[in-house]
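Notes taken during the Thursday session

The instructor put the following on the board and asked us to keep it in front of us for the whole hour. The protein is SIS domain-containing protein. We were told not to look anything up and to reason only from what is written here. First, the residues (334 in total):
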Amino acid sequence: MHAEMAEQPDVLAQLADRRADRAAAIAAARPEPLHGIVLVARGSSDQAAIYGRYALEAAVGRPVALAAPSLHTLYGSEADYRGYLAVATSQSGRTPEIVSVLGAMREAGATTVAITNAGEAPLADEADVLIDLRAGEERAVPATKTFTAQVAAFALVAEALGTVPWTGRDWERLPAAVASVLADDLPAREAAEGLVDAAGIVSVGRGYLYAIALEAALKLKETTSILAQGYSAADLRHGPIAVIERDFPVLAFDAPGPAAEDMSALRAELAERGARMLRVGVGAGQLPVPEGLAEPFVAIPGVVRAQQLARELALARGLEPDAPVGLRKVTPTS
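Then, after some discussion, the predicted structure tokens were revealed:
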């Protein structure tokens, strides 16, 4: 896990180098008129797709939704996908239900895009356009370099289809921002020391960082066996906030942008309840990320901080983060 995390700047740099070519292919394949976009994913890829939902809907001004794969694989649902773009993402490209659902959507009229780290896998065969992450083999069960590459790939798709709040400068700065986080794992180690005996952790974000809060919770569950739950700032207030009492750990993600004011207000509310706050964000004291990136791109170094925390906390608890008990790299759901 540590070695694969260290590869992320290079993985992101080579994806940025290919973005013009892949964006041109996606723009050329865009259905006209475009009625909407549907995303197909499971596991960590599902969190990347949630990020994609925000990036794509903001860019294209059309509805974007996550598919419910079991409607196709178990319930035999049939829908008309003419005029839709279907984007499926899977690190392995071999999860049976993801492959079959993208194929069914293609047969029902969708234009299809596959985002995968396996360009020769069955998922690629169902795609009109392929974004091969080219991240290299990922052996650790917790996805790290493939996840950040998936997030970047969704940003690529968004800018191919519409107007986005980032520029080429953000792509240029991204690898160095991630390298900067990776070069300084002391904040994560210190934060982990205070969480060794935690019974639970809440992870929270809003907007583009909501998906990152969900992924952070998944990584913590996978590697540490602590019950971590991810929420949007809005949903946390709708009931789950009741579990947060004095010294309950909360991992809060934020970045300068439209959601910053609400996240600041939520942190104040949680502080009043006595929560043990761990803030991940630009200029944040506990788990800082570099300045100079547009809000949507802060998500990537932000989730790298979460990866560091999950790894360090697993080690502090005497666990092996590379191979959590009972998990395997490819989960053959159908």
